[in-house]
Design a protein that fits this description.
324 residues, alpha+beta, Rossmann fold, 6-stranded mixed β-sheet, globular
Length: 324
């Protein structure tokens, strides 16, 4: 009988130390990779790819209830149309300033898609709106399996662990981390008479996380409420974000940057050569638009303008209407 790791869902095996799911003894419940991550914060890369994870999503029955998790810092609805019955959950509300109201975030999503049954804004860390979410899940589950789906680092496993703690007597814990590919296969858990299945986080090819070391991923990932940094830009100049992103501006504007509090932003002149030999992209922004650097930051502009952006690593950079 195949036994699965309770932490990441992968099939357990004791034959090959170099393959996923290795344990010394099949009497154990979590693989060595999960054990090292939980107890020593030691992350090991996996051979699994996005193709493997998408195949898992393809096995989800069309009539199942899907809880589609989206981080408020990186709103990605790329795969939502694959499913018929969807509750959209905006996670990590605790990272945004307290002045940002739920209804504004919900309105933002409703302007992006109408493909949902409900929308909920939560913070797993703060236990915010979890009772309300559970009520919505129960209302729409109809006794069927409930699949938790989302991009890497959207907060799926963190939410499931919080639900286990709040609504069940179980002592099991799904392995969580800020690193890509922590969950490797489906993990089935019964919580409050619900049949919940955690799935691997989908990898975005445009995420900056794909290019960073484990140390740098930890450094750029916000772990507490973001303190927005606002700038009144005058004339022409540059902003350099943590030596990874350069923004050249050519006219007056007011901007606010949302990113991890420990990262540095340096103002300089256009003559500064920093990052100028990197790839670049130009934007003509309308008033009240954001620029998003996937999984690093987003920048709110209040006036229409032209900017040039240079980036050290391959990363998806795009514009959208102001989130906040």
């Amino acid at each position: 009988m195949i036994k699965k790791c309770l932490g990441c869902g992968v099939n357990l095996q004791n034959n090959d130390k170099n393959k996923e799911g290795y344990i010394n003894s099949l009497t154990q419940d979590i693989c060595e990779r999960c054990f090292k991550l939980r107890h020593y914060s030691h992350f090991e890369q996996t051979t699994f790819t996005n193709d493997d994870y998408q195949k898992i999503l393809d096995t989800i029955p069309k009539d199942s209830l899907v809880v589609y998790l989206v981080s408020v810092l990186n709103i990605n609805l790329e795969y939502i149309d694959k499913f018929d019955n969807v509750i959209i959950v905006l996670t990590k509300k605790d990272l945004l300033p307290k002045s940002v109201k739920d209804y504004k975030l919900i309105n933002y999503i409703t302007n992006m898609t109408n493909h949902y049954l409900e929308i909920e804004v939560i913070s797993s860390l703060k236990n915010y709106n979890l009772d309300s979410l559970l009520s919505k899940i129960k209302e729409h589950s109809c006794g069927k399996e409930i699949y938790f789906v989302g991009m890497t680092n959207s907060g799926k496993s963190t939410l499931i662990n919080k639900m286990i703690k709040n609504y069940s007597e179980k002592t099991i814990e799904v392995t969580t981390s800020i690193y890509p590919s922590t969950t490797l296969d489906k993990i089935k858990i019964d919580i409050s008479d619900l049949k919940i299945i955690d799935t691997p986080g989908l990898l975005s090819t445009g995420s900056i996380l794909n290019n960073l070391s484990v140390k740098d991923i930890k450094r750029i990932t916000p772990n507490k409420e973001i303190k927005p940094r606002s700038y009144q830009l005058k004339g022409q100049g540059s902003l350099i974000i943590d030596n990874m992103i350069r923004i050249d501006y050519y006219e007056d504007n007011n901007i606010t940057i949302y990113l991890a509090n420990n990262l540095q932003i340096v103002k300089s002149s256009l003559n500064n050569s920093k990052l100028k030999d990197c790839k670049n992209i130009d934007f003509d922004l309308s008033a009240r638009q954001d620029i998003v650097v996937e999984d690093l930051c987003f920048i709110k502009f209040t006036k229409s303008c032209r900017i040039s952006m240079y980036y050290l690593y391959p990363v998806n950079i795009y514009q959208r209407n102001n989130l906040i």
